[in-house]
Amino acid sequence: MRSFMDENFLLENDTAVQLYHGYAKEMPIIDYHCHLSPKEIYENKKFKNAAEIWLYGDHYKWRVMRANGIEEELITGSGSDYDKFLAWAKTVPMVIGNPLYNWTHLELQRFFGIYELLNEKTAPAIWEKMNTLLDGEGYAVRDFIRKSKVDVVCTTDDPADSLEYHIKLRDEADFQTKVFPSFRPDKALEINKDGFVDWIAKLQEVSGTTIDSYESFLGVLEARVDFFHSVGCRVSDHAIDTMMYSETDEANAGEHFKRALAGEKVPLEGEKAFKSFTLTFLGKLYAKRGWVMQFHINALRNNNSRMLQQLGPDTGYDSMNDEAIAKPLARLLDSLEKEDALPKTILYSLNPTDNNTLAAMIGNFQGGGIPGKIQLGTAWWFNDTKTGMLDQMQALANIGVFSQFIGMLTDSRSFLSYTRHEYFRRLVCTFIGKWVENGEVPDDIEFLGEIVQKISYHNAEEYFNFQHLPAGSLK
């Protein structure tokens, strides 16, 4: 019987052990999609206690706490931080089998040197140990980033954002991690959502341009892309909860934009037309500037309307959608490809039944001398599990080119989430190691070790080409 989470945790064969410890373990990290705060990075925030660093804003933990019968007062409510920490400690033993159980203990081990199991009995002592360390030197935001060997962080930023803290960070000569914005124009596309007109007003204000037509709207979006580019942005990101596409033109899309600007609801066909033209317009901008485009597809958000009204979005009430994606996605990508304007693109679906669909889809649009130009994105959100990661890898290996995979990201608001890269890399090594043990690939550790290092770091390094944007050089 193996010891709990020992040095060979998740490494299920001798080849995996060699690959992880000899090749993967010390690789740096490119976190090309996350929800970290650039303000907290710039200010080098220190956390007041273990609850703040662990539980604030973490809807992964909130969901399992609710499922364990914890009252909302001790999750997002008015309970004390200590009581919330105790409630989390009470929950942890109950989530065996969920990656949160292992992530929790990896974070305790790697960042705080704590190897005790977290439960109700050990919670008071662990609370004290963590708080003592957090109060001392070496436990601010940038310390966690440095300890994790993070080379690049790409945050998630609205087109109306001033990028104030990215601009300040670029001049920080003593912080070597590159912190770049990502362009996330979801609010520009959701013309039927409440707040669209208010967001347009905000975009007008930050751009200094009146938006009174679709033409002026597209012009402002292009100007914001250029502004983001000047601050180091090379990645866009789109939450496409329902994949849709229709053939249209600028005049038709503009009519529906005009209706939305007047506060009217747009019919479904009009919404499709507007989103299709706007998204292809943006795709062309990205391609021209050498950006990477990301699509996060098939999330079903804000399902509990009572709790949405009480707590707002992103509080743990989202789930997988099961909308069909293949035809509209193919048509959208093809519309860009026909004009030789398809940027590098990463496709993710929150529904794991889409893995094979997307793995096949990416093969339709590869080329241009770019290895892995179109990527099957890493297992995302509810799929960010042992079986979810392995299933995503298997789909890519079965249908595509696994060795060109750009690997893991955190997609997190927590500065402790970098242990997820370790979790992922251990699984990559086991995945490849099983092929060796079964005689399916040669027992060439040096060759396989190079592939492990490519998937862990080098593929992303080459794909995003961040290396030509050193920290502090973007003026």
- N-C termini distance: 56 Å
The CATH topology label of the domain at 1-45 and 151-176 and 406-475 is TIM Barrel
User: What's the SSE pattern?
Assistant: HEHHHHHHHEHEHHHEHHEEHEHEHEHHH
Uncertain runs are 470-475
CATH first level of the domain at 1-45 and 151-176 and 406-475: which class? Answer: Alpha Beta
> Strand content of the residues, in percent?
5-15%
Shape: globular
Rg over alpha carbons: 23 Å
**What's the overall average pLDDT, rounded?**
96
Q: Which strand order do you get reading across the main beta sheet?
A: 4-5-8-9
Write the CATH homologous superfamily of the domain at 1-45 and 151-176 and 406-475.
Answer: Metal-dependent hydrolases
What would CATH call the architecture of the domain at 1-45 and 151-176 and 406-475? Alpha-Beta Barrel
- According to DSSP, the number of beta strands is 9
Could you estimate the helical fraction of the residues in percent?
Answer: 40-55%
Structural class comes to alpha/beta
Largest sheet: 4 strands, parallel
Helices, by number, come to 20
Quick tags:
globular, 3-stranded parallel β-sheet, uronate isomerase, domain 2, chain A, alpha/beta, 20 helices, 475 residues, 9 strands, TIM Barrel
